[in-house]
Records
---
Amino acid sequence: LHDHLVDVLLDAAAMGRVHVERDGVSHSHEARFVLIGTMNPEEGELRPQLLDRFGLTVDVRASRDVDVRTEVVRARMAYESDPAAFAARHADAEVALAERIAAARDRIADVVLGDDEVRRIAALCAAFDVDGMRADLVVARTAVAHAAWRGAIAGASGATGKITVVEEDIRAAAELALPHRRRRDPFDDPGLDPAQLDEALAATAEAGS
C-alpha cells in the first residue's frame, strides 16, 4: 500500500471519521470498520503502524503431507463435478460449526480472566518486545474467546458454570496475535518460533504468580 493510503487508514481508525477533500468536495462522515485482508509478504511489507491494527494473523502454507494434498485434490474435483452435492455432503458439519461458534459467543460472559493470567499475558508481550499495548489487549481478548470456544465444546451437553482462562488459551492467542507484532530484523523469517514461545510461557509462569 502507498504511504498516503496507509496514513488515511490509520487516521480513520484512530479518529473514527473519514475526511474527503478532493476537487472542491469537502465531506466528513463516521467510520467504524475492521481491517480484513490477505497479502503475500514477498511482494512487500506493511508498515508496523498498520500491521498493529490487525488483531490476528494466520500464516497459510501449502501442506507437504501427500495424504493431505491428495484429499484436497479429490475434494476440489468432487466440487467441480457436482457443487450442489458437495455442499450438501458438508452441510451438517457447517451447521455444527456455526452452532459451536454461537454457543461460544453466548458463553463469553462466563469466562474469567484472572489477575495471574493478565500478568502472564503482559509478561509474554514484554518478552517478545512488542510496541504499544494493543498486543496485550488483543491477546487477552483472544484468550477469553478461545476459552469460551473451549467451554462451548465441553459444555455441549448443557453444562454451565464459569470458564477460567488457562495457559492453553493464552498460547493459542499468542500464536495469532504476536507474529506480526514482534520486533525482528527485515531478513528474519516471519512467524513465531514454537520453542521460543514455550520458553517465554515457562518464564512468564512466575510472573503470573
---
Amino acid sequence: MKIFRSFFKLHQSGILAFVLCSIVFVLIFSLYDLPVGAVLYSAVLSAVICLALFLASFIRYCKRCRMLQKMQQEITVTIQHLPQPQDCKEQAYQELLKRLFQKQQEQAQAWQVRCSDMMEYYTAWTHQMKTPIAAMQLHLQAEHSPENRALLDDLQRIEQYVEMVLTYLRMEDMASDLKFEHYPLDDLIRASIRKYSQMFILKKIRLEYQAVNQNVITDKKWLCFVIEQILSNALKYTKQGSVKISAEESANGLRVLVKDTGIGIRSEDLPRIFEKGFTGYNGRMDKKASGLGLYLCKGVCEKLGHGISVASKEGEGTTVMITLQCEKVQQGDLVNM
C-alpha cells in the first residue's frame, strides 16, 4: 500500500491531466450539440489502455523499489547493484551517490588507519608502563613497612587501571587472542586471590574460599581478568566483613559466586551496571569509578561464552555470579584466609 501511494503520487499529475482533457472534450461536444457518445467511448478506450500501461509501470516500479530496499542493506559495502537509471535525473542522483560512497570509503579507510595507529601506540604504552610498575613493586617489597604496603596497594591499583586500558583496546579483536583449554578452576581463582592478598591484609577483610575442584573450558588470561576485576570491586566497596568465593551447580553449568559484605548496589542502578561508563550512585560517591570494570567483564564473558550476573541489596552486599562449562573432579572443601 505504501508503494502504491508513492507511485500514485508520482503519476498523479498525468492522471489528473487525462481526466481534465476528457472533461474538456465532453463539455465542448455538448456545447456544440455534437454526439457525446463518441467522446465517451474514446475516453473509456483510452482509459483502459492507460490503465494497462499504468499497471505495467507499477509492476516495474515495485521491482525497482524492492531492489533499492535490498540495496539499503548493502550500501555500506557496495553500490554495484544499483538499478539502471531510467532518465537523466536518476542518473544524476546515482552519480551523486557514487561520489558520496567513494568519499565515505576513503574516510573509513583513513579512520581505520588512524585507529590502528592509536591502538599500536596505546598497546605499546601499556606494555611500557608495566616495566616501571614491576620495578617499583620489587623496590617496595624489599622493605616491609606500613608505608611500603600502602604504596604497594596504590601501585596495584595503577597496574589494574593499565590492565583495564589494555583489555579495553583488545576486547573488540580479542577473538584472535583466545586460547580455549581445560583448566583447573581453583588454580585460576587462587592466582587472582594471590594478586590481591596484600589488599585483603591491609583492609582487614576476611576471605572465605571454598575450593571448587572443577575443570573449566575457558581462556586463562581473560577469565583471570574477570575474576580479578570482581575481586577488586568487592575490596573497593567493602569496608569491613568478608569476601566469599564459592561455586554451585546450575542448569547451565557451574556457577562461581563472589559474595561480599560491602555497601551493595541500589536497586535502580542494577539494570544498568554493565553499561559502558555507568557508575551509579556508589561510583558518584566514590568519585574514582570509571564505569568500565563491569562493562569489560560483561564483554569478555560474552566473548568467552560465559554468563555473568549480579545480585545486590543496598547496605547488605553484592554477589557476582559467573556461569562456566565445567568437568567435575572431586568433592570440594573449605579454605579460609
